[in-house]
Specification:
Layout lengths: L1 H18 L3 H6 L21 E8 L3 H10 L7 E4 L7 H4 L4 H4 L8 E2 L16 E2 L8 H4 L9 H9 L7 H11 E3 L16 E4 L6 H12 L14 E3 L3 E4 L2 E2 L2 H6 L8 E4 L2 E9 L4 E9 L2 E13 L2 H11 L2 E2 L1 H6 L6 E2 L10 E3 L4 E2 L9 H4 L2 H8 L11 E7 L15 E6 L10 H6 L3 H8 L4 H5 L1 E8 L7 E3 L10 E3 L6 H18 L2 H4 L4 E2 L15 H11 E3 L31 E3 L14 H18 L6
Parallel strand pairs: 1-2, 1-13, 2-10, 5-6, 13-25, 14-15
Antiparallel strand pairs: 3-4, 6-8, 7-18, 8-9, 11-12, 12-13, 16-24, 17-20, 17-23, 18-19, 19-20, 21-22
The protein binds flavin-adenine dinucleotide and 2-acetamido-2-deoxy-beta-D-glucopyranose (NAG) (3 copies).
Flavin-adenine dinucleotide binds next to helix 3, helix 6, strand 11, helix 11 and helix 21.
């Protein structure tokens, strides 16, 4: 058994590495059946000083949509610049999502040592994966499609961001969408015929059935959290096509890969945006492809879609940022703006495992690596289609939810995984979390292997955090990773709210539904927390500070705010204040993180941004 697993691991790693070098190699690793819409996006290398109407930086969740929508205007010549290469067979497999963060498809950022989070992870540092591949983080992500509560967007509008209230942005969620879930096809909240397929995993986990029953026992409805009510229990909706990942590059780029006015340059890392210091106009972009540095020029605009980390960093290395900080690192300021502040994220507590007396309920390494699962996957189903391994989502309110908010607005989310850290034979989850082998064996080593395989997880996610972090740059060189201070649990209420999440999970597993299988929390205390009585609030606070990790929802470093608001980097029309011909359209513009997984909100922002740009240039919107 073990040598088979090792062999699979080696093959995967080789394939992922090689895929960076050869398109044909990833083509071999991409299985049939393929829809005619899909196929490799040709790589184009621009000539030095070549001109484009629009240059989009970053082919991530937002960038692929922007490139598609802007090139709908046939007289606009559009260039899309991406630092990574192609996705491949393995990145398509939904349950392998956690694994992708350990490959070169991840930029590999990490935080500064944290005070109250990632305490027992390597060096108190939290890993912050970001996609470096065509499709960006939509290739690394866990596929979950979740939009948030209407008030999240109404709050943006109340801050003065005209045009961003829920009723104004709902059409943009629907515009992208091709809902494949039959029960929801007639819902007024969902779209049909868009580029992006939204579906349930074809595999029904036995745990999903228990989760639904447990929710009902506790008085929660089973429902569509992207519909009228968010609070409740549900099966995760996913960016998925026939059981495979539907990234934004697959959805929005591949079907239009031969559009003549759109060019895509891959493996091209932007070093700097060229800004004329006198006219304060963005005139071009400098990037490295292989060893060669090139410049491309714009006739109209540059659209920055390099993500919360990349966009903030690129602005600053190009002279747009807090003046005193830029001077500190030796950059000549062009425009003084609060870039890098307002860094917000969602953390989840992920060290727990629940044990059941029937391993067929769970999907751990043994099931995931079995040839049967592989065969089922090739036929379009089976446990490998679970999005990032998730089999259930729930939204609820803790006693820390703001009283000023509507009672329909959640502040805690539960994500049920069909497997757990205890079942991590191959060490993939350990690597992702950053927990050391020593920690793992101390907590889970006492369990026999077959017991570890019969385990699953329910993790609480802090979806309305109060703590805010900050991104700074180290130098003017884009290759130097920025300084990321996340400040998780800086506001102690965040920690208390997450403990409430643990308590809610305990209620879920104590229902009749879960007790049918003798479900119990593995109760070996975490090293370093043994000083607190097991299961006390203090114990959980300690455990949370040890192994809470990000669910990779960083947003906010190029905050959208109305003119006159000193915290704003971009206007509600996404123009960088004080610079002509430069917009930002990605996760970084969010003024406040929505109580949702951020992929759907980012895609909405990109759809709306494309319409704003068309309007501003006098074109009709579609
Ligand atoms: C591991 C992981 C799991 C996640 N799980 C979920 C989930 O289940 N559900 C959900 O809703 N959200 C999830 N998210 C979050 C979600 O995927 C992101 O919020 C979203 O993809 C961000 O989109 P973006 O366009 O802002 O940035 P990205 O998608 O990261 O795109 C930025 C792009 O710019 C490129 N780039 C950056 N700098 C440069 C440069 N200098 N030159 C050239 N190119 C550059 C990058 O390579 C990348 O392709 C997850 C994220 C991660 C990383
Ligand atoms: C959706 O609406 C159409 C037309 O109104 C109807 O024919 C169809 O049965 C409905 N489908 C579902 C799943 O409700
Ligand atoms: C930027 O940093 C990289 C990696 O450290 C280095 O190879 C490169 O030469 C640096 N570029 C400049 C302009 O200093
Ligand atoms: C699992 O535990 C429950 C509750 O203790 C018990 O009723 C059931 O028979 C057990 N099932 C197996 C397969 O051991």
């Amino acid at each position: 058994m073990r040598w088979i697993l090792i062999w699979i691991q080696i093959t995967v790693v080789i394939a992922l590495d090689a895929s960076k070098l050869f398109d044909f190699w990833t083509d071999i690793f991409r299985p049939l059946p393929r829809s005619p819409r899909e196929g490799f996006v040709p790589d184009y290398t621009p000539n030095n000083l070549e001109e484009f109407d629009f240059i989009v930086i970053g082919a991530g969740s937002a960038g692929c949509i922007l490139a598609n929508r802007l090139s709908e205007i046939s007289e606009w010549k559009v260039l899309l610049i991406e630092g990574g290469g192609n996705e491949n067979f393995f990145s398509d497999v939904p349950i392998f999502a956690p694994f992708l963060s350990t490959t070169p498809m991840n930029w590999g950022y990490s935080s500064e040592p944290e005070q109250r989070a990632c305490r027992d992870l390597r060096g108190n540092v939290c890993f912050l994966p970001r996609g470096k591949v065509l499709g960006g983080s939509s290739v690394l992500n866990f596929l979950i499609y979740q939009r948030g509560h209407p008030d999240d967007y109404d709050d943006w509008a109340k801050m003065g961001n005209q045009g961003w209230s829920y009723s104004e942005i709902l059409p943009y969620f629907k515009k992208s969408e091709n809902i494949r879930i039959s029960d929801l096809k007639n819902s007024s909240y969902h779209g049909r015929g868009g580029y992006l397929d939204i579906d349930y995993a074809p595999y029904k986990s036995p745990l999903e059935v228990l989760f639904r029953k447990a929710g009902e026992e506790l008085g929660y409805k089973w429902r569509d959290p992207n519909g009228e009510h968010v609070i409740g229990f549900s099966k995760p909706q996913a960016t998925m096509r026939n059981g495979r990942r539907c990234s934004t590059s697959k959805a929005f780029l591949e079907p239009i890969r031969y559009r003549r006015n759109l060019k895509v340059t891959k493996n091209s890392i932007v070093q700097k945006i060229m800004i004329d210091p006198i006219t304060k106009t963005a005139i071009g972009v400098e990037f490295n492809k292989g060893r060669i540095r090139r410049q491309v020029m714009t006739r109209r605009e540059i659209i920055l879609a390099a993500g919360t980390i990349g966009s903030a960093q690129l602005l600053m290395v190009s002279g747009v940022g807090p003046e005193e900080h830029l001077i500190e690192v030796g950059i000549k300021p062009v425009m003084n703006l609060p870039v890098g502040y307002n860094l917000q994220d969602h953390v989840t507590f992920s060290g727990n495992a629940f044990l059941v007396n029937d391993s067929s309920l769970c999907v751990n390494d043994k099931t995931a690596a079995s040839p049967i699962s592989a065969a089922q996957y090739l036929a379009g189903g089976g446990p490998l289609t679970l999005p990032g391994g998730a089999a259930g989502l729930a939204f609820s309110r803790t006693r820390f939810a703001s009283r000023d908010h509507s009672a329909t607005r959640p502040d805690i989310e539960l994500v049920m995984g069909a497997g757990s850290l205890a079942g991590d034979m191959l060490g993939i989850l350990r690597t992702l979390l950053g927990v050391t082998d020593k920690w793992f064996w101390q907590v889970y080593g006492s369990l026999p292997p077959q017991v570890r395989q019969a385990s699953f997880a329910i993790n609480p996610v802090l979806i309305r955090p109060r703590s805010v972090g900050r991104l700074k740059i180290r130098t003017g060189n884009f290759s130097d990773h920025p300084v990321l201070k996340m400040n998780y649990f800086d506001d102690i209420t965040d920690l208390h709210a997450l403990v409430e999440g643990v308590r809610l999970i305990q209620k879920v597993v104590n229902t009749r539904a879960f007790q049918q299988y003798g479900t119990r929390l593995h109760d070996v205390p975490f090293p370093g927390c043994q000083g607190y009585p097991f299961d006390s609030d203090e114990y959980w606070q300690c455990a949370i500070m040890q192994t809470s990790i990000t669910i990779d929802h960083q947003v906010g470093t190029c905050k959208m705010a109305p003119a006159g608001d000193p915290s704003g980097v971009v206007s509600p029309r996404l123009q960088v204040y004080g610079i002509r011909g430069l917009r930002v359209a990605d996760a970084s513009v969010m003024p406040r993180i929505p109580a949702a997984h951020t992929h759907a909100p980012v895609m909405m922002i990109a759809e709306k941004a494309a319409d704003i740009i068309k309007q501003d240039w006098g074109y009709p919107i579609m």
